[in-house]
Every structure is written in C-alpha cells, then in structure tokens.
Amino acid sequence: MSTRQPRSQGRRPRPGAARVSPARLVAYDVLRDVDDRDAYANLALPARIREAGLSARDAALATELAAGTLRMQGRYDRLIELPSGRSLDAIDSRTLRVLRLGTHQLLGMRTAGHAAVNESVELQRLVANEKAAGFVNGVLRAIGRATTEEWESRIDAEAGSADDALAARASHPVWIVRALRDALSAEGREEELESLLSADNTAPRVSLALLPGAGVDPGTAEALSIDTDRGEARLVASGPSPLGLELAGGDPARAIESLDVPAGTARVQDQGSQLAALTLSRATSTRPGERWLDLCAGPGGKTAVLAAEAALAGASLRANEVSEHRAELVRNAVEAHADGVDVVSQDGREDAAYGGAEARFERILVDAPCSGLGALRRRPEARWRKQPGDLPGLTELQGGLLDAAIRHLAPGGVIAYVTCSPHLAESRMVVADALRRHPELQELDAKAILRDISRDELDLAGKHPSAQLWPHRHGTDAMFIALLTK
Fold first, then answer.
1. φ, ψ dihedrals at 364, nearest 5°
2. Is the pLDDT of residue 171 over 50?
3. I need a surface site. Which of 73, 139, 302, 329 has the fewest CB within 10 A?
4. Following CA atoms 294, 296, 299, 303 in sequence, which dihedral angle do they give, to the nearest 10 degrees?
5. Catalytic site includes residue 296
6. What pTM was estimated for this model as a whole?
C-alpha cells in the first residue's frame, strides 16, 4: 500500500495523518472537490489519484469509496439523519463527508465495522473538527448496529409518501424517480422502475469502441489477455454494439495500448453512444460524396464513430461544437480520420455552424445538450446537481437546434435526434413538437434499424418508432434515438 499522502489545498498536516489510508484521503478530497468546486468526479478522481501516487489497489479503493458514496448519497444522508437526530444543515459539511464515506464502508462495502468506524474517526480528526470525532463515532456505530432491512423499514415508516421512501432507499431525487417512472410507463414497463434505479447505482463495466477501419474485428479481441498489477484481465466482445468490447478489469489505457490498431481507432465509449452514431450512419444506404454533420460534437465520441463510417462510405464530415475548448477535444477524438473531418466552433442554431445558409447535408446528428439523466451510473454526482427548473431552458435549446438542422437537411436526408436522457420532455415531446412544426418530415423506424445493427437481440418497447435504450435492460446509458427524414 502506498504511504504517500495526497496534497490538499488548504489542509495543514496534523498528527495522526499516517493512521488514515491514502485511498480514504483521496476519496475525501474528491467529495470535497465535487461539493465545493463543482468538480466532476470522473475528472477529479484520476487527477487526485495521480497526485497521491496511489497503487492500482489503492486507486481502486479510492474510486469505490468516492463514486459509491456519491451514488448512494441520498440514502446515506437519510441514514445519518435518523441516528444523529440532526438535519443535514446542522452538520458541518466536512463532518458530513466523513460520515457519508463511513456509511458507505459500513453498508456498501465489505469493510469490517470496527475498521470503518476507526478510520472515519481518524479522518474526522485530520480534516475537520477534532471535537466532533465522538459524534462521528456514535453515529457510525449506531448505523452499524442495524441491518439494511431494519434501516429500510425506518426510512419507509418516516417518509412522507411512497415516492419519498423509494427515492431515499434508491438514492435518487424524488423528481427524477417520477420522471423515470413516466418514461417507463410510456413503454408499458412501469414495473421495471426499481430495476432501473438499481442499475443507476451499479458501477458500469468499462466499454470500448473498436472503430470501423481499425483492421480488427471486435469479435477477435475476445481472446486478448492483459497483464495488470491486479492480475490478468480480458477484453471481451460483449454488449449490443457491433463495435463494442468490454474490459473485464484492469486499466483501459493499457488495454487500448495492447491492441495492435492504428492510433485513435480504439477508445473508451459507452455502447449506447456507439449505437446512436451507427443508427444514423446505417439508417439508409450511402452514396459517395454525401455530406454529414455532427451538430453538437463535443467531446467527440460519436464524432469519431461517424468519421470512421464516413471514411468507409466516401462521405465528408463536418463537426460543430459551440465551445472552442470542447471543439479541441473533438479534434483529438478524430485524429485517426483528421483529413476527412472539418471541425468548427459555432452556435448550432446559426447558419455559420453549417457553412452558410445554403449548405445542405444528407445526414445530421443532433446530439443535443440535455439533463444527462441517462448517465447517472457513470456520473454519480449529476443526480444531486440537476433540478426540474433546468428542463425548460434545455427543451427550448433542443427544439431550436433541431429546427436549424431541419432547415439544412437535404431532401431525402436523415436527422438523428439523440439525448442521453429518457425524460419525456427532452425526448418524445421534442420530436413530436418538431413533427408538428415541420409537416414535411417523416419519422423512420429507429427500433428496426437498431435491431438490425445490434449484436444482441434488443428488447425495445413502446409504440413510437423512436428507440429508448436503458442501463437495466441493455447495459448502456439511457440513450434516446429518433430518426427524421424529409
């Protein structure tokens, strides 16, 4: 185990720091970064791990501590309130982070109870008010004395409604629980709600995309073994995307380096994102010389898939991203096909994004900015940051982007409207409104195209031709995909 301590801005070393494991200190720093600096955990974690020089074992522990605590924060907060007899507002934020981490070790990991309590007490003495160490000790010992079933009974008994109880037990804000239920109900699958919430609280396996033109069939990578300092791992051709590989443990960067493929043709990417891009590129037969556009391209994962597909089809690809910083990420993402991709930075509602008022494209991807409710398992802190009040502004933007794309769609061309959100206001309602505003449009059967593309037999429900992917049903982010044509 590494003995190097992570640096923490504003923290003075105190006696007893050596008694707290480096992984727990890193996890605490990540929680603080998320709370105080609006950091994204998936970015803060690697940075803190590198800064601390953690071994692979300690890095895995820090990741589970931080990500697991963020996923289950709503549940843990309710459990902390019950034995402490205090509202969360009455608990110092530093102490609350220590209690959340300790609760996760007690209830979400296989940490021995005495170790979880003792380490939490030492962490409290190091990062917060030492006088509150007894409070931390008492609350965590009380939590550890009851079983999970007993705590759930108390949560249910003291909740204001059945939805409040479910939201607390499943660690989701109640408005998100209701939005997810509505989306499932629209498919006639409301009974899947608890399975979906559980999937949101389960860390996803690392998925890779092996882009077309890499020279390797993803199916042949199944036998690839990778030596890591935690043992041997394998890349497995698994999941619904025909480009998809899953990493059964180990470092994704090392796995990519182990593949004998051109630079940039293997990348970490959720298989739902892979399928969203492929649904557009393979919606209809292609002709050489077609012009394709990725309207909201950053950070470039779907753009990379489209670039590879465009190269095989003899098409050109324009990639637009309103943020210049994210446009640079797109340029990096398409390095394997840089000669065939024109990356620009414009507002996607303006003609400049398309190259002028008269520009027309045969295929346009509108991967619209959205709430991101479909990626809660990978971005655990997002559920605590989003608010229902965010949606009106997002849906207005989504509709504006779609209207602009329709103006620049060539006759017979196809638009893919995609969101990483199953919320009906961001998915079916946006499409329905666009169809009302533009009677020249028709909706294609995205479900049929997805089933034809997929490696697996996809269970796609609902009466509409659009497709909704789900983490609990398909093992992907909850991507919504609709195809429109003139």
1. -130, 125
2. yes
3. 329
4. -10
5. no
6. 0.92
